[in-house]
């Protein structure tokens, strides 16, 4: 006997045993409607979110709904079995039709349910990682400082020239400051004389 499976449902066979727990596998096999089984598998991927929306086109494709099905057929043959069978598995399960336009055309379906809270694995028994300080070489007890590199003749001459130029600039700056101080003293003396003459004239 040869059994063929629609390619759109290949993932059920390939991932069923690897992704389902034994309890989930029992839930899955107890479902009667093929559409309920398909939706069960899809919604389990969003179990920690508790909500998923598909456009009508994507919904038709994912569940391999015949093109001849009108919305009334989808309600009766697809959505009703899904709601009846999955309501006992997904808490607060509901299906909302999203409409658009004046005519209220259904463009998408939103599935909501109480999201699952997956407990975090216990960290007991795990060895705490030991943090080791990485010291620089110069801080180690056996550190031997490298020998200083001597300048070659050209480098030394360039350095000496720059230092000489720097010294000349310092001398020039000091000379300018001294001249400024001398000029300031001169102006202070003249201002004092002018103020004395002005006060004498007023008296």
TrEMBL record:
Residues 3-44 form the Initiator Rep protein WH1 domain. InterPro entries: Initiator_Rep_WH1, WH-like_DNA-bd_sf, WH_DNA-bd_sf. SUPFAM superfamilies: Winged helix' DNA-binding domain. Keywords: Coiled coil. It comes from Ruoffia tabacinasalis. This is Replication initiation protein. It comes from the Bacteria. GO terms for molecular function: DNA-directed DNA polymerase activity. GO terms for biological process: DNA replication initiation. Signal peptide: none annotated. Gene3D superfamilies: Winged helix-like DNA-binding domain superfamily/Winged helix DNA-binding domain. The lineage of its organism: Bacteria, Bacillati, Bacillota, Bacilli, Lactobacillales. Belongs to the initiator RepB protein family. Residues 163-190 form a coiled coil.
